[in-house]
Design goal:
disordered N terminus; globular; 5 strands; five-stranded mixed beta sheet; alpha+beta
Length: 154
């Protein structure tokens, strides 16, 4: 699908543009559908997560295709002196076009302009979309790793 490189920061005055918020939720669900442990939260629950401390339209980045459909999102929040990207995803039809990198670069630029020199995120190292390679290409480096262990009982 053609990608027009139309980026938007924020989602409307007073964080109330519900249409853009719903479109971003739909893009989030589409982007994470193939994640190993993803269960889409109800829309209202997801909205509550985006209202946590540190979330702001300043850290909400979207990219749209030529028709105006959201192709990718990067949703962040400021935590102390670090911009933490809580959610970054690109819908499957738009992957492989550099959109994830472009969204990260938007976040880096906004963070730098704000005076924050650190951007962080968490990633599933087994993510089938190649997320780890993307973050390394963007110049990010792993700072620590977490191993989750489980056992099926019964």
């Amino acid at each position: 699908m053609p990608f027009s490189h139309k980026f938007q920061t924020g989602y409307g005055e007073n964080n109330t543009n519900r249409g853009i918020i719903k479109q971003s939720y739909d893009a989030y669900v589409d982007a994470f559908t193939d994640h190993w442990d993803f269960t889409p939260p109800p829309f209202e629950e997801w909205v509550k997560r985006t209202r946590r401390s540190g979330f702001s339209p300043d850290w909400w980045f979207t990219a749209r295709d030529e028709s105006g459909r959201i192709a990718g999102i990067a949703l962040g929040r400021m935590h102390d002196d670090t911009l933490f990207i809580d959610q970054i995803g690109v819908r499957r039809p738009y992957r492989g076009q550099g959109l994830g990198l472009a969204l990260l670069q938007q976040a880096f630029g906004a963070s730098f302009a704000y005076g924050q020199s650190t951007v962080s995120l968490g990633v599933d190292s087994e993510n089938p979309s190649g997320a780890v390679r993307l973050y390394e290409k963007a110049g990010m480096q792993p700072t620590f790793e977490v191993t989750v262990c489980e056992k099926q009982i019964g």
